[in-house]
Write a structure and sequence with these properties.
The complex is a heterodimer of chains A (865) and B (272). Chain A is an alpha+beta fold and 865 residues long. Helix content of chain A is 46%, strand content 22%. In chain A, the strands form six sheets. In chain A, strands 17, 18, 19, 20, 21, 22 and 23 form a seven-stranded mixed beta sheet that branches. A five-stranded antiparallel beta sheet of chain A has the order 2-1-7-6-3, sandwiched between helices. Chain A has a five-stranded antiparallel beta sheet with strand order 13-12-16-15-14. In chain A, α13 runs antiparallel to α14 and α13 packs across α20 (689-699). In chain B, strands 1, 2, 3, 4, 5, 6, 7, 8, 9, 10, 11 and 12 form a twelve-stranded mixed beta sheet that branches. In chain B, α2 (28-44) packs across α11. Chain B starts with a helix and ends with a strand. Classes of the chains: A alpha+beta (865), B alpha/beta (272).
């Protein structure tokens, strides 16, 4: 399936592109986000460093202020102050004052975390201290440098200064004023280690690398580094040394100050979140600020690695997530691809199975008409070995190159090509395909165009099947149907024969009688004889009509299509119809006067109507009933026709003949079977009538509608396509008059069939009688009992419900042995009278009753009086 | 009534079956070591609850005897009447409280034999001797450094030197709060004398020997442990013979290297 493969390749490619784009986008978004997060993390860390720096400065200031206040308060305490002044001046008993001062200050010093005290003269010489050995010495240079400021009234804390060889001390000094308010000297205390800067800056240490330290103008570190061990290890400090005063804050391994120190020396306070190497050479971010009180820079720094620890965690998480996503995506994609392949394989197998298992031949064509696939049935039907013999070859040239008659068939004109061209489905009921061996066979085929996603035709699928067997079967069926029709016609003839024989008998009797009378009177009364001869001629006319109808009915095998008027045709066979009916069955005609002509074989039409009427008659089953024959024209739509029997014709105008009866009707099971040959519900039937009817219906491209329900009668409606021509019917009737009248005597008419009863009553009244009706024998008996005297004659049907004619006659005779009863019956006179032999029947009239015959019989019956 | 019956049951339930409580009472001197030791022990054994209260050595002995405490703390030898009642009570020595007399290095260097007699020390602290020259040292006034009254170290010192903790005292002594202050002061001065627990001496600070009844005692651990150094006392933990295993385990901890380290840090001398 190239089309399917292309689609799959395309979708797989698109899928890959989409997946790649997705991951690229995810990567880009992650990269940008990570950048933002990194920047944010660094800024947050720098801000917290800033906070540490500021806090450290404040704490240092506060501690300094408090310590100075303590020292000032002590130095201004009266006894202490007095002693100090004594020692600074040239007072008496200096050793005693010194001892006293020592005693006074000792407890205070140690309890306030000071280590020593000195009383310095303005020149910087020690006037008093804890040890006599220090007296007279000049203080260290670092202290001396700040002495001037102190003497000017400023209490201050010195930077760490080197005292002796290795002792680093920080001093706090306050001025000592004499009574005149002039600074007489300086009171200095040595800060305990606990009061040094690094005790405070150490509070700023957090995490693994954050530290705060102080640097003086020379770039010397004024606090102890938290990384002393590292510094000792790389030789920046000696063993046992700390960084306080002992180290320049330079980038490790160079003479350059670190970025923070360089900036604080020549610029304002600031920060750097761009990593720079610190004094250990480790990349850090930092903030710095200059503290004027201590004349030193406060610097806080943090290793970049630590500042970005959170970021690194997030980054790793995102990378893991991306990797996980990628992996999951790959797994899903692979699983989906596998699933798709399996599904495709299964559906292909199913499709192939379907294609190969179907009895119909299927092949595919590309736009050039070349075979793209073919199933086994196709290969077999076209007489090839394998589908490969067909692939890529032009199918028209292979299988459809010529018409059935051998003339060449242009591909452009073929229906398959037009299906490709017009992008529509094509169906062809019959064409020939050619086998590989050069033989041909009739096929029915369908061509379905194939569309791509854009609605463009990419090829078509052709499905065909060999219909030679079908054609043979159809021919066989047609033959059988004709046989059936023929046989059935013979059967119908047999049924008709009795009735027709009777008619002929009547005619022959009339001819015989008239001829006899004529021969007798030809001399005595030539006029009358002539009249008789005229009657004979008339009778002969009637007989010839009958013969013609018979001939037409048998059809003599000729199928002559001509335009006929259904109404006229029905009228023509009226006689035939009526003679084949049971007594008690009345035909009601409702024939359209103007009716479109139809193209039909007259004989078959007659047979059809005859069959329908015969069946209707038999459905009534010997009881009295009505058969209605209606003609008309109607428009039948497709839906209406779908419900009909016969080859479904197209919607349009149809002329119809409807035959309905009041008989027993049919149940669904019977309805289904009535058209089967040899299906019959009758004891004597052959079961060919309705199948012949259907054959005729098919032969005339007509339709047959059937309504029937048990107990409610049956209606057959035969529709035949109407031609455009109309026909008009003409009616002519001749009545013969008799001069005899009934003189108002009463006649009891007993008949269960209202139509018959009423008709007879009307006729009798027309003859001058008074008529009274009864539905059955019982009613008749009751009436006769009450009006025995008036009733001159009883006209009675033979077959009636409740009490038939025979029984009624017996009962009437019991009431009045001289009762005059005229029997009316559909049976022949002979048959009927046989039953009443020796029973003094007043007369017999055969149905249907004509007025003349009735008058004659009644006249005869009452004429004796 | 029902409530009263339920109460013991509730108490029983409220007290977990495995509750391990050690009640300790007695000497505040020992308590100074016991508290950090208990703290360290609890870190290792969080299931053990240790309650420590003071009350003095006498109360320590009494609490153990009447069962109010599982362990008692004592920083002196039991007295005769106590000893008579302490039948079935075991005493475990957990350390020594030994005190050295210290002087500033300038004094130490010039003091003959680096020692003073008990009488000299007593005279200095009573204010009867005010210059080092009087006891063979340099011509320099003496600064006596004393500690606040309730100090255990001071108790030992005064008890020995003056044989009476309530004896009269030099009024112009410098009184400090802590051993650290004492140490700093003696260290920075060139004329001070003071007393410190063992271990607080370095090159700026010097413990001197003591002459007593014709014998010279130098402040070293060996002398303390063999009982010959007079300025010392034993620190005891008391307990009944039968104590829960976890209490025994705690006592073992006190005597372990770690426990003894804590003892050292608290200013006392380890038993070994």
């Amino acid at each position: 399936m190239p089309f399917g493969r292309i689609q799959d390749r395309l979708s797989a490619h698109t899928g890959r592109v989409i997946a790649t784009l997705f991951f690229l986008l995810a990567g880009l978004v992650s990269w940008v986000s990570l950048g933002q997060i990194r920047q944010h993390e660094l800024l947050t860390a720098a801000r917290s460093l800033q906070g540490v720096n500021t806090l450290t400065a404040r704490v240092l200031q506060k501690q300094s202020t408090e310590a100075i206040a303590e020292a000032t308060s002590l130095s201004t305490n009266a006894p202490v102050h007095e002693l100090m002044l004594a020692l600074l001046g040239t007072g008496t008993d200096v050793p005693a004052s010194r001892y006293a001062l020592r005693l006074r200050l000792a407890a205070w010093l140690v309890s306030h975390d000071f280590r020593d005290f000195y009383l310095l003269g303005p020149e910087g010489r020690i006037r008093a201290g804890f040890r006599d050995a220090d007296l007279g010495k000049v203080v260290a240079q670092g202290v001396l440098d700040t002495l001037g400021d102190v003497l000017h009234g400023e209490g201050l804390i010195t930077h760490p200064v080197l005292i002796g060889d290795h002792d680093v001390q920080m001093w706090m000094m306050v001025p000592v004023y004499d009574q005149g308010g002039i600074a007489a000297g300086v009171f200095a205390v040595v800060l305990d280690k606990q009061r040094h800067f690094d005790e405070t800056t150490g509070l700023g240490q957090f995490g693994a690398s954050t530290e705060t330290y102080l640097v003086d103008r020379q770039g010397r570190m004024l606090t102890a580094s938290r990384f002393e061990n590292q510094l000792i290890a790389n030789g920046r400090l000696k063993e046992g040394q700390n960084s306080e005063l002992n180290m320049l804050v330079h980038v490790s391994g160079s003479n350059q100050p670190t970025l923070a120190v360089a900036h604080m020396l020549d610029g304002p306070d600031g920060m750097s979140i761009t990593p720079y190497p610190d004094y250990r050479g480790v990349p850090v971010i930092g903030v710095w600020q200059w503290d004027r009180l201590f004349d030193a820079a406060i610097i806080s720094e943090m290793d970049v690695d630590e500042a970005l620890a959170g970021y690194v965690q997030t980054r790793n998480l995102i990378l893991m997530l991306l990797a996980g996503l990628l992996l999951a995506g790959l797994i899903v994609a692979r699983s989906y691809a596998r699933y798709r392949r399996r599904q495709e394989r299964e559906s292909n197998e199913l499709r192939n199975l379907l294609l190969e298992s179907t009895a119909e031949a299927i092949y595919g064509l590309d736009l050039q008409g070349r075979c793209s696939f073919a199933n086994k049935a196709c290969v077999r039907m076209l007489g090839y070995e394998a589908a490969d013999d067909l692939y890529g070859r032009n199918m028209h040239l292979l299988a459809q190159h010529s018409h059935a008659d051998g003339t060449s068939y242009d591909e452009q004109q073929s229906r398959i090509f037009s299906s490709l061209r017009n992008k529509t489905r094509m169906h062809c009921r019959e064409e020939v395909f050619w086998r590989r061996d050069g033989s041909s066979f009739p096929v029915e085929f369908w061509s379905h165009p194939l569309f791509d996603d854009g609605g463009e035709v990419v090829g078509c699928v052709v499905t065909f099947w060999d219909i030679s067997e079908l054609r043979k079967a159809e021919a066989q069926r047609n033959r059988i149907e004709k046989q059936i029709q023929h046989t059935q016609r013979l059967e119908s003839l047999g049924v008709l024969a009795g009735g027709i024989a009777h008619d002929f008998n009547n005619i022959l009797s009339a001819i015989l009688g008239n001829a006899a009378l004529a021969s007798r009177k030809v001399i005595s009364d030539p006029l009358d004889a002539r009249e008789r001869m005229e009657s004979v001629v008339q009778c002969c006319d009637r007989a010839s009509v009958l013969c013609r109808q018979m001939l037409a009915y048998s059809g003599k095998g000729k199928f002559v299509i001509r335009q006929i008027n259904l109404s006229s045709m029905v009228e023509e066979i009226t006689h035939l119809l009526e003679v084949s009916l049971d007594k008690g069955v009345v035909i009601k005609y409702s024939l359209a006067v103007t009716l479109p002509l139809v193209e039909a074989d007259e004989a078959q039409m007659q047979q059809l109507i005859m069959n329908l009427v015969t069946n209707a008659n038999e459905a009534i089953g010997g009881k009295s009933g009505v058969i209605s024959i209606t003609t008309g024209v109607m428009h039948a739509d497709a839906e209406y026709l779908m419900d009909c029997y016969g080859d479904i014709p197209v919607a349009g105008r149809y002329t119809y003949v409807e035959v309905s009866d009041t008989g027993c009707g049919m149940d669904a099971e019977t309805r289904q079977k009535i058209f089967d040959p040899f299906f019959t519900t009758k004891f004597t039937g052959r079961g060919l009538g309705m199948s012949a009817v259907l054959g005729i219906v098919r032969g005339h491209h007509g339709a047959l509608k059937l309504y029937s329900e048990p107990g409610k009668g049956t209606t057959f409606k035969y529709l035949i396509p109407a031609s455009d021509e109309l026909a008009t019917g003409e009616h002519e009737a001749l009545e013969l008059e008799d001069q005899w009248r009934g003189d108002g005597r009463l006649v009891l008419v007993v008949d269960d069939e209202e139509t018959v009863r009423e008709t007879a009553m009307m006729m009798l009244e027309d003859m001058g009688f008074t008529a009274v009706g009864a539905v059955n024998g019982l009613e008749a008996l009751a009436l006769y009992r009450s009006r025995q005297k008036e009733i001159a004659v009883v006209l009675m049907d033979l077959t009636m419900p409740k009490m038939g004619g025979e029984e009624c006659f017996r009962e009437l005779r019991r009431i009045n042995p001289d009762v005059r009863v005229v029997l009316s019956s559909g049976y022949s006179e002979q048959d009927a009278i046989q039953t009443f032999t020796g029973k003094k029947l007043a007369g017999f009239v055969q149905k249907p009753v004509s007025p003349a015959r009735l008058k004659q019989v009644i006249h005869a019956a009452v004429g004796d009086e | 009534m029902r409530t009263l019956l339920l109460l013991p049951a509730l108490l029983f339930l409220a007290q977990p079956l495995y509750a391990q409580i050690i009640d300790i009472a007695g000497s505040t001197t020992v308590m100074a070591f016991m508290e950090p030791a208990a703290q360290a022990y609890r870190r290792m054994h969080p299931e053990v609850t240790i309650n420590i209260r003071g009350g003095g050595s006498g109360a320590g002995a009494a609490s153990v005897m009447d069962g109010r405490a599982m362990l008692g703390m004592m920083s002196r030898e039991p007295e005769e009447p106590e000893l008579a009642r302490m039948h079935g009570i075991e005493r475990v020595r957990v350390g020594y409280d030994a005190v050295a007399v210290v002087v500033s290095s300038a004094v130490y260097r010039s003091l003959p034999g680096h020692a003073l007699s008990r009488g000299d020390v007593a005279a200095i602290y009573r204010g009867e001797v005010r210059n080092w020259q009087a006891v063979g040292g340099p011509d320099r006034r003496i600064i006596t450094v004393d500690k606040v009254k309730h100090s255990g170290t001071r108790y030992v010192f005064v008890n020995y030197v003056l044989s009476d903790p309530h004896a009269a005292w030099a009024t112009d002594s410098v009184i400090v709060d802590s051993n650290g202050e004492m140490e700093t002061l003696v260290q920075i001065s060139d004329q001070a004398i003071g007393f410190l627990p063992f271990g607080g001496t370095d090159r700026h600070l010097h413990a001197i020997g003591l002459m007593d009844q014709g014998r010279l005692f130098f402040p070293d651990a060996a002398h303390v442990r063999d009982g010959s150094y007079p300025l010392s006392r034993s620190l005891y933990v008391l307990h009944k013979k039968k104590v829960p295993d976890y209490a025994r385990d705690f006592i073992a901890f006190l005597l372990s290297a770690e426990g003894q380290k804590i003892l050292s840090a608290s200013g006392y001398l380890p038993v070994k």
